[in-house]
Amino acid sequence: MEQEVSQQEAQQERRVADRDRPDVDLSAYGRELLHEMLWSMLLSRRFEEKCAEAYQMGRIGGFCHLYIGQEAVAVGAIRALRSDDYVFTAYRDHAQAIVRGITPRAVMAELFGRVDGCSGGAGGSMHMFGADVNFMGGHGIVGTHLPLAAGVGYAIRYRGGDQVVLCFFGDSVVNGGPFHEAFNMVAKWGLPVVYIVENNAYGMGTATDRVASVEQLVTRGHAYEEMHSERVDGQDVIAMYDAVTRAADRARDELRPTFLEAVTYRYLGHSMSDPAHGTYRTKEEVQRERQNDPIATLCDRLISQDLLSQEEYDRLDKAAIAASEDAAEFAENSPAPDASAIYENVYRDEYLGGLDRRDAWR
Amino acid sequence: MAVVTYREALNRALREEMERDDSVFLIGEEVGEYDGAYKVSKDLLDQFGEWRVRDTPIAENGFAGLGVGAAMAGLRPVVEFMTWNFALLAYDAIVNSAAKMLFMSGGQYNIPIVFRGPGGAALQLSAQHSQVPDPWYANIPGLKVCAPATPADALGLLKSAIRDADPVVFIEGELLYNVKGEVPDGEHLVPIGLADVKRVGDDVTIVAHSKMVQVALAAAEKLATDYEIEAEIVDLRSLRPLDTDTVITSVRKTNRAVVVQEGWPIAGIGAQVVDDIQREAFDDLDAPVARVSGLDVPMHYARPIEKMIVPSLDHVVNAVKHVCYLD
Predict the structure, then answer these.
(1) Residue A7 lies in a domain
(2) A130 CB near a chain B CB, below 8 Å?
(3) Closest alpha carbon within chain B to A88
């Protein structure tokens, strides 16, 4: 027991050690970008609070994994991309989808299973897609999308393009096969992919350091010599933005992939069916992590450097709440898919024989 | 008409399609410098270079998934598995990613990819290297599945598979690579989802695919010679979509059917064919439909036992005699 406590303390210390934020002058980033990043984080947060409400009201079904607490990772990383770059993520995908440019309305309608959803209501919470903004999904099997991201990287090099693929995934992925298979190919062939592990300390209810043989996940990247691996404070949107900016340049200019370990924290349960704390982590731990909130700390920094006023913040927050309300209202009024859509999108080409032939009497 | 091997026909299909469309590329273990474990990709590396003929590490899930991603970005990958036994490690990429991407993205991302390689038993390769993967893939909506029996069909179906907008699982017969047959000289395409009558007859319908078509053809000669039974052989060629119409048309004519498959019996392809026959041609049948399958055990190494497990000419002849009430 004593050993367990000291292990927890050691883990906590490691996580906190990443958060010594240099007192950098943020004005160099420009008010527009800074406000934009704050807005994106607020919108993600308020949107997901609305999701939790809608889930409890039975409007959203199935699994629903919320991102609250981790917003700086998605926002800092995606804002560092060009519009023709690509984004992949796992099933905790609502914030990434919105930050990349799918409208809150289309994401909420997808969560509600309606025709105006960004995947036509066929995918739900875990499968957001947006081809017009190169948002490549929303993948539900742990680790499955890492080789897919490598494939888009392969296609970019095949055609001689200079786009970059950004691929988010959770900390459990680093212990599985697809992680290493993808990393090896990307490193060996010089594919322009930036992998970001969002280390939120738990794979569902299992503490990362109970199942990973390395203290820091970034260590895993060091096995791949051509890959640049780096640990980033995932609660600092500026640090994320800087790290991904450098990584994207490295991919474009040097054809060198990057692995970033973003140290972050999820405030709520693994999904809506889990409590925020209880069996595997304490209330005190969650409260302590909330003191390091990525939105609040950015606000403090911006206000202290005269880059944001309280009034501006209030206006942004109000707008984020309004956009989330609007999204929910839009989703509520969007129709469910018609039964005639049941065999749609199983195949792109005409399907000989008919999928429905054997069920003719139903 | 040239006479070529099944292997050469596949090689020609790859070359023609890679020449026609520069978004087509081949990826897999040993496909480049080694010319393919079964030499299907012979000389392609020299002609097309390493970005279009890519040797991979032994990491099936990884390179199959890479193919799916490349297809999402608009390329047309042909992913070679050295054998379908190894593709079990890539099942997630094929089933959860390739087959469902178009659907779960609401129609935004189709996956024009071909997964190909040899399936079925060869000779004394024992349990892990001798199995028929057909139903594992034919069961999955979103996939198409081809299993050609002749060089001409291998050529025409592979070309169609490469041009298809959806993922195609292309199962070659490991013991068919050296089989020779006539192949048309010009452009030759065989549509996916269309069965083919390989032998015309009035007395019984034998339904088969892949290597079992060759077994059925030999059985039919024996049946004609020894029993004056003229068998009609329907080669399914594609397992999904399954061309039920051609099967039913034949059964309505012959009134008897034997369904042959190399793989295990439970939930096999033959079970689906029998279901289609009983549903659509029940009143035309003069006898219950018979099935010939591989025996329901992992493949033995010992040659005499292996020969008992894989369906043979004699098994097919006996099944035909059974539905003709001659046994």
Answers:
(1) no
(2) yes
(3) B69
Q: What percent of chain B has pLDDT over 70?
A: 100
Q: For helices A310-333 and A294-304, give the axis angle rounded to 10 degrees.
A: 150
Say whether pLDDT at B121 is over 60: yes
- CATH number assigned to the domain comprising residue A66: 3.40.50.970
Question: How is chain B split into domains, by residue range?
Answer: 2-183, 196-323
Residue A109 is part of which domain span? 28-327
- Between β-strands B196-199 and B231-235, what pairing exists: parallel, antiparallel or unpaired? antiparallel
Contact (CB<8Å) B102/A184? no
Closest to A154 (Cβ–Cβ): which among B70, B97, B244?
B70
Model confidence over A271-295: pLDDT tens digits?
988 888 888 999 999 999 999 999 9
Whole-number Å distance between alpha carbons of B192 and B168: 9
**pLDDT over 50 at A1, yes or no:** no
pLDDT tens figures, B176-234: 999 999 999 999 999 999 999 999 999 999 999 999 999 999 999 999 999 999 999 99
Instruction: Look at B107 and A344 and tell me if their CB atoms are within 8 Å.
Output: yes
Q: What is the 3-state secondary structure (H, E, C) of B79-135?
A: EECCCCCHHHHHHHHHHHHHCCHHHHCCCCCCCCCEEEEEECCCCCCCHHHCCCCHH
Q: Please report whether residue A9 resides in a domain.
A: no
| Residue A203 Cα, gap to closest chain B Cα (Å) | 20
* Residues of chain B with C-beta less than 8 angstroms from the C-beta of A177: 59, 61-62
Q: B104, A119: Cβ pair inside 8 Å?
A: yes
Task: Pick the closest to residue B206 from B255, B257, B252, B262 (CA basis).
Answer: B257
Burial state string for A211-222 with b = 16 or more CB within 10 A and e = fewer than 16: ebeeebbbebbe
Is A20 inside a domain boundary?
Answer: no
Residue B192: in which H helix or E strand, if any? none
The verdict on a CB contact (< 8 Å) between A137 and B164 is no
Question: B313-323 and B211-227 helices cross at what angle (nearest 10)?
Answer: 60
Contact (CB<8Å) B92/A345: no
Hey, of B24, B88, B108, which one would you mutate to test binding to chain A, going by the most A CBs within 10 A of its CB? B108
Q: Which CATH class is domain B196-323?
A: alpha beta
Identify from B24, B27, B72, B237 which residue to disrupt to test chain A contact, counting A C-beta atoms within 10 A and taking the largest count: B72
Superfamily of domain B2-183: Thiamin diphosphate (ThDP)-binding fold, Pyr/PP domains (3.40.50.970)
Total number of domains in chain A: 1
> Could you tell me which chain B residue has the CA closest to the CA of A127?
B104
In a domain, A3, yes or no: no
Same fold: B2-183 with B196-323:
yes
CB neighbours of residue A292 within 10 Å: 17
**Active-site annotation holds for B188:** no
C-alpha to C-alpha distance for B231 and B204, rounded to whole angstroms: 5
Tell me the residues of chain A between 282 and 341 that have a Cβ less than 8 Å away from chain B: none
- Residues B254 and B199 sit within 8 Å (Cβ to Cβ): no
SS3 A345: coil
What is the SS3 assignment for A33? helix
A148 and B192 within 8 Å at the Cβ level: the answer is no
